[in-house]
Amino acid sequence: MIEAGVLRAEWTKFSSIRATMVLSLAIVVVSGLFGWLFGNASAGDYATATAQERLDFQPLDMGMRGLFVVQLLVSALGVLVATSEYGSGTMRASVAAVGRRGHLMAAKAGMTVLTALPVSVAGVWLMYTAGQTVLAANGAPYVMPGEPGALVLLLLGPVVFTLLALFGLALGFLLRGTASAVNVSTAFLLIPVLASSAPGGLREFMHTYWPNTAAFQAVSGTSELPPVVAFGVLLGFVAVLLVAAFVQFKNRDA
Amino acid sequence: MIQLNGLSKRYGERLAVDDLSFTVRPGLVTGFLGPNGAGKTTTMRMILGLDLPTSGTVTINGRGPHDLPHPLRVVGSMLDSQAVHPQRTAYKHLLYLAQTNRLPISRVEEVLDLVGLTDAAGRKAGGFSLGMSQRLGLAAALLGDPPVLLLDEPVNGLDPEGVLWIRTLVRELAAEGRTVLLSSHLMSEMALTADRLVIIGKGRLITEAEIGEFTGAGAPVLVRTPEAGSFARRLELSGARVRAGSGDELLVTGMSAPDVGRLAAAEGVTLHELTLRPASLEEAFMELTRDAVEYGGAR
Q1: pLDDT tens digit string along B13-41?
Q2: Which chain B residues touch A248 with a CB distance below 8 Å?
Q3: pLDDT of B157 above 60
Q4: What are the structural domains of chain B?
Q5: A161, B20, B108, B129: which sits with the fewest CB atoms below 10 Å from its CB?
Q6: Given CB atoms, is A6 within the 8 Å cutoff of chain B?
């Protein structure tokens, strides 16, 4: 389905503009920074915590709190793969050159995965390393990468991020503008955080079923749902959005 | 060869293109003319498969625009030469287009050379002048060495040297046997570049013909003779229509210049001048599109 030439062209486009390259780098840097910041803050909390609080201390969750911010950047990366072409007007040239629109969209989805996945691996692993190292250095509990919880996070965290990049790509195709797509994506991904102040039932529902939190909870092992279901919520949601984006892209004037 | 069959495009209430059928033949430069808003660009977008027709079909060398595995090898186009990412270099812009159609990388340098942008290949397109953008757009159109070319207003904003360059290039491309469709609203430019004209107004076909037919047919013949009065009557007797010009001038219509000359010789009339006065393409165009101007000034 993905043609090598069209995919190579996507890489030429991705690597020849500033926004995509800077954002990729920023995702890794910001991840490391947040790992260090939240690690430090949590170590400080631990030092002054009561015995009961120390028992409840979750070093992995504490060190990875920055994921909620980094997810916004990863989604924006997917947005840019589509909207950098709409913004500059090259989408028409690309559509005319590739001809079959499905091939163009498939190549863009491929490029999103091929860039978001390594960037997410680097970001998640750096955040983990920075966070746990700082915790350990300050005498707080920490989690070794071999432990089951950490292993799941390190392996599946980047996969969740990559799905969020595809979510961004779909929004970019649907809304055809960087600003609008990034705004919608950011609002959507932060709704569960805002819902923390909602009434209990709604809050619980949002935390369990909202696509990004459902998957994050599955990854961190805190979900009430079986991991496959929680993961499936995000996967299904992204798939539906991609199909909607494809139907619109195929049937609308370029 | 490009064939349009009953092509229509509706935007809400407005019919931008209305049942348009014509054929663009290879080996010729076909000028695509119409007042602003006539539907030229929409038609070109539909030929390229960018806009989807409300009804009707388009074929390029016998295939639909969505049936081309490597479109750039069949149809090259320049619709909006400014549509280049400002941070991307000319080279990378052409490189990505070449990659989509699996064209050899060497082709990028060839077309850069052809349009005279070799020295600017590494510069970001955002800093290009309009003339350079047009050259880059043309390079993109020629990338796949396509048998069919679609150029929307290619001489817009070019200096006289650039206009001459494009005119020469386009004529050469047609002479090589390619199908060239060139849109413009500049009639004078078309008179110099095109072999055939397709004229549309308000989305409908007004006429299509060889360029000579627009300017030559029915053109008046100017005659100057000291015997204007008697010769005018003689011409009218032979079926021509005659208008008296200033002094000894007669404007003859309905008879060719050679026939006017033969008649004068047969009658022994002295002629001081015998010239064909073709209407300019501009005049012919204004006449044809008078009723189809979308946004006209008060007349």
Answers
A1: 899 999 999 999 999 999 999 888 889 99
A2: none
A3: yes
A4: 2-215 (3.40.50.300), 220-277 (3.30.70)
A5: B129
A6: yes
pLDDT per residue as tens digits for the range A94-126: 999 999 999 999 999 999 999 999 999 999 999
pLDDT at B174 over 80: yes
Q: State both tokens at A79.
A: 């947005």
Helix (H) or strand (E) holding A251: helix A227-251
Edge to edge, the sheet with strand B249-253 lists: B241-244, B249-253, B221-224, B273-276
Question: Does any domain span residue A244?
Answer: no
For residue B237, CA distances in Å to A210, B41, B234, B245, B262 come to 93, 50, 5, 19, 15
- Structure confidence at residue B279 as a pLDDT band (50, 70, 90): low
- CA–CA min distance A251, chain B (Å): 8
Instruction: Supply B28's token pair.
Output: 């010729």
Closest CA to B274 of B233, B217, B235, B237: B235
Predicted TM-score (pTM) of the model is 0.87
Reduce the DSSP state of residue B154 to 3 states and report it: coil
Q: Which residue has the higher pLDDT, A216 or B292?
A: A216
CA A223, A224, A227 angle in degrees (round to 5)? 55
For residue B176, give the DSSP letter.
Answer: T
* ipTM of the complex in this document: 0.92
pLDDT at residue A82 in the model: 97
Per-residue pLDDT tens for B116-146? Answer: 999 999 999 999 998 899 999 999 999 999 9
pLDDT of residue B299: 43
DSSP string of A132-179?
A: HHHHHHTT-----TTSHHHHHHHHHHHHHHHHHHHHHHHHHHHH--HH
Burial per residue of B234-267, b for 16 or more beta-carbon CB atoms within 10 angstroms, e otherwise: bbeeeebebeeeeebebebeebebebbeebbeee
Task: List the structure tokens of A63.
Answer: 């060190």
**Cα torsion through A150, A156, A161, A163, rounded to 10:** -160
Residue A141 lies in a domain: yes
Q: Which residues of chain B are within 8 Å of residue A85 when distances are taken between CB atoms?
A: 85
Residues of chain A with pLDDT under 70: none
**A193 close contact with B: CB closer than 8 A:** no
* A97/B contact by beta carbon, under 8 A: yes
Residue of A nearest to B146 (CA): A97
- Residue B217 in this model has a pLDDT that exceeds 60: no
Contact B83 A89 (CB under 8 A): yes
**Domain encompassing residue A69:** 4-189
- Does A158 map to a domain? yes
Q: Are B81 and B137 within 8 A, CB to CB?
A: yes
Find the CB nearest B66 among A6, A8, A100: A100
